Amino acid sequence: MENAGDLILFFGRWHPLLVHLPIGILMVSFIIAWASRREAYGGLRPAVPFTLLMGAVSAVLASGLGLLLASYGGYEARTLGFHQWFGIAVAVLSVGVWWLYRGRTEQRTGMRQFVKWRLSIFSLLMVLLCITGHYGGTLTHGEGYLTETMPPALGGLFGVARSEEPFVIENVQEAAIYDGLIQPILARRCQSCHGDKKQEGGLALHGRAGLLAGGDGGAVIVPSQPEESELYHRLTLPVSDEKRMPPKGRTPITPGEIAVIGWWIAQGAPAEGRVADMEQPDEIATALAQLEAGNVEEALPEAPPLDAGIVQQLVARGIKVMPVANGSNYVMVSAINAPGFNDADAEMLVGLKDNIVQLQLGRTAITDAGMAHIGKLPVLKKLHLEHTAVTDGGLAALAACAQLQYLNLSSTAIGNKGVDHLKALPALTRVYLFGTHVTGAAVAEIQAAHPTLEVDTGGYVLPAS
C-alpha cells in the first residue's frame, strides 16, 4: 500500500488519547474491588469484573497503538523500552486479573488458590500501571518532569534538590558563533523536546542541519529575517500563549538568550566565525557579557553606588559599562569596541574599583603600566587580557586581586615568570594560556599550587571526519 506508513502513524498517534482510558478505568476498578471487601460496599462487587474487562480491553488497545507509534522512533531508546515493556505487562496482567474476578473462575476448584491472591495481584497491576505512566510522562515531558516544578518546601520533604547551575559561556567573544554560542543555548533550553532523543513536531535542534531543515510545519529559520522565523516568533510570544516556547513547566529562556538568537538569525544564521567578528549592538553586547559573567556577585558585599561621572567618561570613549543584573551596582566593563583603550583609560577604572567584577580588555592597547591600575580593583573576578602587550612584569600587579577567578592571557608574551605571579591568587579557577611562552612544567607547577585550577593551553587536535 502506497501510504501504509502514513496510515500506521495515523493510528499510532491515537495512543496518547486512548492511553488514559486504561489508567482511569483500572484505577476505578481497583478502588471498587478494595472497597467491596467491606460489607457496607458489598453491593459494588458485581461491578468489578465489568470494569476490569473494559480496562483490560482499553489497555490492550492502547499497547497496540503505542507499538505502532514507537515504530517511527524519535524517542529516547532506553526510556521508550521501559515504557513499552511495562505497558505490555499491564495489558497482559489486566486480562489475567479480569479472569480471576470472573464468576466462572471463582467456581473452579483449580483456580481457588489464585483467586485467593487476586487482590494482591491487582495491587501489583496498579504498581506497574504507575511505573508505565511515569515512563510515558518522561517520554512526553522530559527527564525530571515531576521534580522540575516542585516547590522547594515539598522538594525538601522528599529530599529532592532543585538547583540550576548558572548558564555560563566561558570566553564568549572568542567562541564559535554557532557551536560555541547558539548551540549551547538551544541544548539547554530546547533539546529536551527537540533533540536527538525526541523530536516534537518533527523538529530536531541538536544540530544545525536539523535546525535549518525545520519540522512538520516547514522551516523555522529564515536567515537574516528573525521576525519571519518561526523559532524566534515562538520564543517571543507572550508567556500566556500556549504556543510560546519553551512551554510552561520547562526551564525558561532568558530575554538575553532570546535577543542573542534573534541577533544570530539577523546576521544570516552563520555556521562559522567568532562572536567577536560579528557586529554587536549595545543590547547584544550586554547580553553576551551576561552569558559570560555567571553569578559574579556570589560572596561579595553590597556594592556602593556607581560614580556617574566616571561612567560617562568611559562611555564617551566607546567603553561599555553594564550591570551584571537588574538593580545591581556591580558592573562589567568591556572595551571590545574600543581597541584604543590605553593605560590612561585604565586609571579611570580605579574610580569604580568597588564595582567592577568583570573587565574585558582583550585586543586593546593596555600595557604593564596600565596593569598597575587594574591591580587596584579588589572585587574583580574575571579579567580578559588576550592579544595585548602585557608581559610577566605586569601580572605582578594582580597580587591584590584576591577575588580573581578567571584570567585570559592568550596570545600574549607571558612566560614562566608570569605564571609565578599567579600562584598568589587564592580564588583563581581558570586560566587561558594558549599562544604564550609558558611551558608544560610551569603549568604543572601552578596546578600543584592550585589543585582545582583549570589551565587551557590550547593545542587541540580534532579527530578526522
Explain what you see.
The protein is mainly α and 465 residues long. It has three domains: 4-157; 172-276, no CATH class; 297-456, Ribonuclease Inhibitor (Leucine-rich repeat, LRR (right-handed beta-alpha superhelix), Alpha-Beta Horseshoe). It is built from 20 helices and seven strands. The chain has helices spanning 4-12, 15-18, 20-35, 47-70, 77-101, 103-107, 112-116, 118-141, 152-157, 177-189, 208-213, 230-236, 255-266, 282-293, 308-316, 343-349, 368-374, 392-395, 416-422, 440-449; strands spanning 320-323, 331-334, 356-360, 382-384, 406-408, 430-432, 454-456. A seven-stranded mixed β-sheet has the order 1-2-3-4-5-6-7. β6 (430-432), α20 (440-449) and β7 form a beta-alpha-beta unit. The longest helix is centred in the N-terminal third of the chain and has 25 residues, at 77-101. 33% of the residues are buried. The model is unreliable at 460-465 (pLDDT under 50).
**Portion of residues in helices?**
40-55%
Q: Could you spell the SSE succession in H and E letters?
A: HHHHHHHHHHHHHHHEEHEHEHEHEHE
Count of strand segments:
7
Q: Are there runs of 5+ residues with pLDDT below 50, and where?
A: 460-465
Mean pLDDT: 85
Pairing-aware structural class of the strands and helices?
mainly alpha
